[in-house]
Design a protein that fits this description.
- The structure holds 2 protein chains of 2 kinds.
- Chain A is of the alpha+beta class.
- Among the domains of chain A are: about 30-85, no CATH class; about 390-480, 2-Layer Sandwich (Herpes Virus-1); about 485-585, LON domain-like (Archaeosine Trna-guanine Transglycosylase, Chain: A, domain 4, Roll), CATH 2.30.130.40; about 595-690.
- Chain A has helices at about 1-40, 45-60, 65-85, 85-100, 110-120, 155-160, 180-190, 195-210, 215-225, 230-245, 250-260, 265-280, 280-295, 305-315, 315-335, 340-355, 360-380, 385-390, 425-430, 445-450, 455-465, 465-480, 510-520, 595-615, 620-630, 650-655, 660-670, 675-690, and strands at about 145, 150-155, 410-415, 420, 490-495, 500-505, 525-530, 535-540, 540-550, 560-575, 580-585.
- Chain A has a 5-stranded mixed barrel with strand order 5-7-9-10-11.
- The longest helix of chain A has about 40 residues, at about 1-40.
- The N and C termini of chain A lie far apart (about 140 Å).
- Mean pLDDT of chain A is about 85; it is low at about 315-325, about 335-340 and about 350-355.
- By secondary structure, chain B is an alpha+beta fold.
- Chain B has helices at about 5-15, 100-115, 125-130, 135-145, and strands at about 25, 35-40, 50-55, 70.
- The radius of gyration of chain B is 16 Å and the shape is globular.
- Classes of the chains: A alpha+beta, B alpha+beta.
- Chain B: GO terms for molecular function: ATP binding; transferase activity.
- Chain B: Pfam families: UQ_con.
- Chain B: Belongs to the ubiquitin-conjugating enzyme family.
- Chain B: InterPro entries: Ub_conjugating_enzyme, UBC, UBQ-conjugating_AS, UBQ-conjugating_enzyme/RWD.
């Protein structure tokens, strides 16, 4: 019997041991699973992590001493879902966790995922006031302009000095030290003196606020608002200070006015969110914050605010408390004002009931509101050029006049010293190596090269304040460029020949201008004629050249590669901005009469042979230099006798033959191929007989 | 001939409408770039009471290049030579395209008030101006009376 008893006890022990072993195994298996889930989460495989955490949570449900671990797991589960985009499901789990009591504020994954969802397509391009500072949106104070052509307040420039790129266009701002833009400064002072004063008061308010003098700051904002009513920048700051003074209701009113005026400005929604939160209206606060994030370019600094807002929404006790607070408050209000009291209370009870919607519903509402706002902002065609409508004195043409050409500024650009000229006027100053015409400080490369942009403010101010003048000026420029070129510019230098390269080094100021204009002009052509000392002027015959390539140097000089297009005869002469202009007639060879064709062909062949002979006399070095500049001698064309300029090789030869200017011009102007060939033949004969090379 | 640049048209208009005291500049009938200028000798200078004729020409690349100005009336001045050429920095290397006809003429008027014998163009005049200023001023007054008055 005893033996049986002992056996029974042993069996029982074995069973208990087996059971314990199984249990431990199961536990350690779950622990392993948790590890894998963590790994999956950390390696951002949120889909897998969700599955694993889900399994862990269900397996741990039966274990009594794992409360802390279970909480972690549930957060892991919810975080994984949030990260894999299952926001609604995630929120349900978070809500469940929050229901069980107070837990740490661990909502960063949900907040990040929400911000990501709100920001999926990036913020819509917000409309902006074209005349405001691109950084702060206020009237530009002590404006400085960047290389991209946008302008900001000097203070904003200093504040954002770390960013090398313009927040509006993303282009480089250029060098860091800048002078105040004299023209914009003058215009701002003339058009918006009240705005400047209001902005100064706002600034004073800001520093008082920073220093903790809230009431004084409020006074400054009030004074600023008195000067320029309902200016969003002032109201947003006043909302902030009012909230700090525990006047949340008024703060909310200011924030709502801001949103009404600038519905595209994220800061308005941010202020509204804070005010609402302070009033205990956490659901609405969350929605306002979502709207702010939907419009904000860089929403990540708002993650903390998002965490808090979510926390408040999820925390059941707080929600209840806030509801109680509202009821009490309303009751108090209703006792003050008997008539509307009952109705108010009733309304509030209704609202409190409506509050009992699920958190998921709130999420839906929030995402929808943000999406709608983004859509509205995108389709909002209303321009927000407040400043142009609030000028205190009328704009005059003379306000926008270029000091160099005395015309309305066209494509205005600003130098580093802060002076503004037309683009082309500034180019001309650089051609002449002039310093800045107004202050004589050197014009550095920054304004010469591609770093330069049209000054946006002046361009926009002109089109908004003097639209008619702007249109006319635009028309003038268009007409000027569309005008058929009756006269061609003439570069007086040497003789060019049809089809033959003509490399040029451009250093004279007037020719820099001429070449620049030719390049801007679609034809890219100009005339070339030699100066004839005997006549004291340039030759009557020249060659139309086409610019193939231009290489500019920092000094303003350039090397231009041109090719002769056609010969011309000068009909009349003129001058423009220092260079010559000519009305010309293009020349073509007279057709060769059939009876002369045989003679001309024989002559042509003879000259070609003679040319080869002469070339063979030249040194190797000389020949290679010729080839480098003018290429090899062109082959004979099949229809050489019928070409408008005759065979190409004769012009190639003309370019390298050691002839005087007058002779070259004479041959250039000859429209009989036979005569030209005879002249070349004679020259070659002369050269070879005397062995001149 | 090209149409006249707006800059020259505006400057001419302003010279006509708001003339500078003591200076008259009238464009030639046939050439709008050529101005007949009369500068009155500044008060308290040896040139007081004189009317000095000058010619002023705006080159094709004005205002990138300075106007060409010359005294036609003979003048005894260390910075103006026998041919009437003027030694004035803004007409040469210190020229700025933001300067105008009126500012140039004002500078010339100021040059009459303040001769600068240390940067001379007429060496003999400058020499005397430095050595014996009283005599130089007497000469200048005499020349003014002889060449710049009544005619």
């Amino acid at each position: 019997m005893n033996v049986l008893k002992v056996l029974l006890v042993q069996l029982l022990r074995l069973l208990v041991w087996l059971w314990c072993r199984k249990r431990t195994k199961q536990q350690s298996g779950t622990m392993n699973l948790i590890g894998v889930a963590h790994d999956a989460f950390n390696s951002r495989d949120y889909g897998l992590a969700t599955e694993l955490y889900k399994k862990c949570v269900s397996e741990l449900d039966g274990v009594a001493d794992a409360a802390a671990t279970r909480l972690d797991l549930q957060f892991g589960y919810a975080d994984s879902m949030a990260n894999s985009g299952r926001l609604r499901d995630a929120v349900a789990v978070y809500a469940r966790i929050y229901k069980r009591g107070c837990v740490p504020d661990r909502l960063r994954h949900l907040a990040t995922a929400l911000i990501g969802a709100l920001h999926a397509d990036g913020p819509p391009p917000a409309p902006f006031d074209p005349l405001a500072c691109v950084a702060c949106g206020s009237v530009p104070r002590q404006p400085v302009s960047w290389n991209c052509g946008h302008c900001v307040c000097l203070k904003c420039d200093q504040k954002h000095s770390r960013d090398a790129h313009c927040p509006r266009c993303g282009k480089s701002k250029g060098r860091s030290r800048r002078e105040v833009n004299v023209l914009i400064n003058t215009l701002v002072q003339k058009f918006w003196p009240k705005h400047l004063e209001a902005a100064a008061l706002r600034d004073e308010g800001n520093s008082l606020f920073k220093g903790g003098c809230l009431k004084e700051a409020l006074e400054k904002y009030n004074a600023s608002d008195k000067l320029v009513k309902d200016y969003p920048l002032t109201l947003a700051n006043r909302s902030h200070v009012l909230l700090s003074l525990n006047r949340a209701q008024v703060a909310l009113a200011d924030a709502e006015t801001v949103i009404k005026i600038w519905p595209h400005w994220p800061k308005g929604y941010f202020r509204k969110s804070l005010a609402l939160s302070s009033l205990g209206r956490h659901d609405d606060s969350l929605i306002a914050l979502a709207c702010c994030i939907a419009l904000e370019r860089n929403p990540h600094p708002l993650r903390h605010d998002m965490c808090l807002a979510l926390h408040h929404v999820l925390l059941p006790t707080l929600r209840a408390k806030s509801a109680n607070f509202w009821i009490k408050r309303r009751k108090r209000a209703s006792s003050d004002c008997e008539d509307s009291g009952d109705e108010d209370l009733h309304q509030h009870q209704q609202r409190a009931r409506a509050r009992q919607i699920t958190v998921q519903g709130l999420m839906d509402r929030m995402l929808k509101a943000a999406e709608q706002l983004q859509k509205n902002t995108k389709s909002d065609k209303r321009s927000i050029d407040f400043l142009s409508k609030e000028t205190t004195s009328p704009a005059e043409v003379v306000d926008f006049e270029c000091v160099l050409c005395s015309r309305t500024l066209w494509r205005p650009v600003t130098t580093h010293c802060g002076h503004t000229y037309c683009w082309t006027c500034l180019d001309r100053c650089i051609d002449y190596n002039h310093p800045c015409p107004l202050c004589m400080s050197p014009l550095t490369e920054g304004v010469a090269g591609s770093e330069r942009s049209v000054l946006d403010f002046v361009e926009k101010a002109l089109s908004l304040l003097l639209p008619e003048e702007h249109r006319q000026r635009q028309q003038q420029e268009q007409e000027q460029s569309a005008e058929p070129q009756r006269r061609i510019p003439v570069f007086v230098c040497t003789t060019g020949f049809p089809g033959t390269p003509c490399p040029l080094f451009i250093y004279e100021p007037r020719y820099r201008l001429m070449i620049r204009r030719a390049i801007q002009n679609e034809s890219r052509q100009f005339g070339m004629a030699a100066y004839l000392e005997t006549e004291g002027r340039y030759a009557d015959f020249g060659t139309l050249l086409e610019i193939r390539d231009a290489l500019s140097f920092n000094t303003g000089c350039s090397i231009v590669t041109c090719v002769g297009i056609s010969r011309f005869k000068v009909l009349s002469r003129g001058e423009k901005d220092g260079y010559n202009l000519a009305q010309v007639e293009l020349l073509k060879d007279e057709p060769i009469p059939d009876e002369r064709l045989e003679v001309v062909t024989a002559l042509h062949n003879e000259v070609r042979t003679r040319a080869h002979t002469w070339l063979s006399f030249l040194s190797e070095k000389c020949r290679s230099e010729i080839e480098q500049t003018f290429g090899c001698m062109p082959e004979i064309e099949d229809d050489w006798f019928a070409l408008p300029d005759g065979p190409q090789w004769t012009w190639w030869l003309m370019a390298i033959l050691p002839l005087g200017s007058k002779l070259k011009v004479g041959i250039l102007g000859t429209t009989s191929l036979e005569k030209r060939l005879r002249a070349i033949n004679k020259t070659l004969e002369h050269l070879t007989s005397r062995n001149i090379i | 001939m090209c149409s006249l640049p707006r800059r020259i048209i505006k400057e001419t208009q302003r010279l006509m409408q708001e003339p500078v005291p003591g200076i008259s500049a009238v464009p030639d009938d046939n050439n709008a770039r050529y101005f007949h200028v009369i500068v009155t000798g500044p008060e308290d200078s040896p040139f007081e009471g004189g009317l000095f004729k000058l010619e002023l020409f705006l080159p094709e690349d004005y205002p990138m290049s300075a106007p060409k100005v010359r005294f036609i009336t003979k003048i005894y001045h260390p910075n103006i030579d026998r041919l009437g050429r003027i030694c004035l920095d803004i007409l040469k290397d210190k020229w700025s395209p933001a300067l105008q006809i009126r500012t140039v003429l004002l500078s010339i008027q100021a040059l009459l008030s303040a001769p600068n014998p240390d940067d001379p163009l007429a060496n003999d005049v400058a020499e005397l101006w430095k050595v014996n200023e009283a005599e130089a001023i007497r000469n200048a007054k005499e020349w003014t009376r002889r060449y710049a008055m009544d005619n």
